[in-house]
Specification:
about 325 residues, alpha/beta, Rossmann fold, 3 domains, 6-stranded parallel β-sheet, 12 helices, 12 strands
């Protein structure tokens, strides 16, 4: 195995002291001639020298690392959430360590422990598999500050970003009712997280408010993916529903694909509303009506909140309540 290039190797090749090279590489070499600075940079690039993060961090105590656990990187929603996190952390010279276990709870618990063992400064957790036992027994015990994002069950302590998902469920269902639909199905994942359960509560309350009975037979569980939505589409049609509210956009897009495979049309034969407002929605035919979440902004807010916690560990718990909005497109038709 090749030996890692060290700052000592750069100094030796440049014929300079390690102190001089260190100051130049760390942006503190203004007192040295420009030719000397340029020489050091050229040798650095020639040798392929990269600073050892752990060693540099022990000296400066400035660079922070934040572990981030999400349930699924394939979902465009989380991809955009992470983009917001990364852009904000870059501005603060903070390094995000992003891990996804594709909803494998054992792997998520392993990642959580591994991040703590590796000494991350803080964590952002968007996984419903991480519960109070891990938060109290691992993070708090090791004094690792954390922020919980939306999917987790409510707890008394900790910073949180909370989306008004119950209102989102109401917005989606109200829109379908106002379009004249009376038999409205809902598609959700087999193991719904807290935010999905709130969307279901919003769906249910909207039905009751309009004098429509809530029917368990119209609530369909499936794998949380486009394939899951496609798989359950036939059950939705067989139920006699004229409209469906899907707990997220991936499920909704799958239902639309399933309808097409059954020789049906959206919205003529089935109206569909999703949740999240991922970028694919604009490119579907028809374009998907959905409940919008400001997901990029939520990533930015999560970064800002965790950085504030790192600057002031004794600060009172931080809460950010996020509103949602209905985005009307082409996947809902009025009942004649």
């Amino acid at each position: 195995m090749a030996k890692r290039v060290t700052i000592k190797d750069v100094a030796k090749a440049a014929g300079l002291s390690i102190t001089t090279v260190s100051q130049i590489l760390n942006g503190k070499g203004d007192r040295f001639p420009a030719t000397t600075q340029e020489k050091v940079m050229q040798i650095r690039d020639q040798l392929g020298y990269v600073p050892n993060f752990n060693a540099r961090n022990l000296i400066s105590h400035s660079m922070k690392t934040v572990g981030i656990i999400v349930p699924n990187l394939v979902n465009p929603f989380f991809a955009m959430f992470l983009r917001g996190i990364q852009d904000a952390m870059y501005e603060h010279e903070c390094v995000p360590i992003i891990l996804s276990a594709d909803r494998d709870e054992n792997l998520e618990h392993y990642y959580l422990r591994t991040l703590v063992e590796r000494g991350v400064d803080a964590m952002i957790i968007a996984s419903s598999a991480v519960g109070n036992a891990e938060l109290n027994g691992l993070l708090k015990r090791n004094a690792v500050p954390y922020l919980l994002f939306d999917q987790n069950d409510p707890i008394n302590e900790g910073d949180r970003i909370i989306v008004d998902d119950e209102r989102g469920g109401e917005l989606a269902t109200n829109h379908l009712i106002e379009a004249g639909h009376r038999k409205i199905a809902m598609v959700l994942p087999e193991r719904p997280s807290q935010n999905v359960r709130l969307r279901l509560a919003g769906y249910r309350s909207a039905l009751v408010r309009h004098g429509l009975a809530f029917d368990e037979a119209l609530v369909f569980s499936t794998e949380l993916s486009k394939a899951g939505g496609q798989h359950v589409a036939k059950q939705v049609f067989d139920s006699g529903a004229t409209a469906v509210f899907s707990a997220n956009d991936e499920l909704a897009l799958g239902v639309m694909r399933g309808a097409q495979m059954l020789g049906k049309k959206v919205p003529d034969d089935l109206s569909v509303v999703g949740y999240d407002d991922i970028d694919l929605d604009e490119y579907m035919v028809p374009r998907l009506t959905t409940v919008h979440q400001p997901v990029y902004d939520m990533g930015t807010w999560a970064s800002q909140m965790i950085m504030k916690r790192l600057r002031d560990p004794a600060h009172a718990p931080l809460f950010k309540v996020v509103d949602v909005a209905l985005v009307k497109r082409d996947s809902v038709s009025n009942v004649k």
